[in-house]
């Protein structure tokens, strides 16, 4: 089983538009898919699940769409924190905090505090997140000329993203909505992630889709730069 699954939840807007509904309707349906996916991941005993809810580039969207998304995040935290506690799910939010509204910041702090001792699964929601900004921030925290290791750099990345440590690198990255790109998500942590692109629009993503992505992951041979058992001695490359 993958220990850490990350998801780029894409397709809310297109799903709504093809139904003649506003994009915000797609996001509200997407929030229900979040709830289903968290429950499914917990049932499957996934250790960490990171969901891309709002990228730093999403601030370019119309104010009304941003306001609707922020309201959905607040409502999600208000409605789900208690359920997370009951199910042993630690909830944290990664990304920048300084551009979020005060009410959302307080809701995040309350959820993080309430779930801090939960150990069965770690749910991380990425809000105002840019992997490149996190890498830049981490590099400036460590300063020039230091002899830093990958572990030290990972710690600085975690500090930059307000992310508690101890989360393994991403094993499986799923992107819904048919596009095939990373969109500045977890670039450092996905160094050896298996990528699975699903044509399913996020509001329709269901437990069977998560299971299908995990089955696909299990079919892949992960070599981490080594050669497989069957590889000829002359094999080169590090894929
Ligand atoms: C990507 O674009 C999706 C988002 C920017 C928002 C993701 C938000 C949710 C899934 C709902 C709320 C989340 C939580 C954690 C409660 P898009 O779906 O607008 O894509 P499209 O325009 O390409 O279809």
Let me know the average pLDDT. Answer: 94
Biggest sheet details: 6 strands, parallel
Summing up helix and strand content along with how strands pair, one would put the structural category as alpha/beta
Whole-number count of domains: 1
Bound small molecules, which ones?
Answer: farnesyl diphosphate
Number of strands: 6
Residues in helix, %: 40-55%
CATH superfamily: Decaprenyl diphosphate synthase-like
- CATH topology descriptor: Undecaprenyl pyrophosphate synthetase
**Low-confidence parts:** 234-239
Q: Taking strands numbered 1, 2, ... along the chain, how are they ordered across the largest sheet? A: 3-4-2-1-5-6
Distance between the termini: 21 Å
Shape descriptor: globular
Number of helices: 7
Q: What is the name of the CATH class?
A: Alpha Beta
Give a verbal description of the structure.
This protein is of the alpha/beta class and 239 residues long. It has a single domain, classed as Undecaprenyl pyrophosphate synthetase. It contains seven helices and six strands, in the order E-H-H-E-H-E-H-E-H-H-E-E-H. It has helices at 12-17, 23-43, 63-86, 102-114, 131-142, 150-160, 207-219; strands at 4-8, 48-55, 89-94, 121-129, 172-175, 194-197. The protein has a six-stranded parallel beta sheet with strand order 3-4-2-1-5-6, with helices on both faces. Helix 4 (102-114) links the parallel strand 3 and strand 4 (121-129). Helix 5 packs across helix 6. The two termini are 21 Å apart. Residues 234-239 have low confidence and may be disordered. The structure holds farnesyl diphosphate. Farnesyl diphosphate binds next to helix 1, helix 2, strand 2 and helix 3.
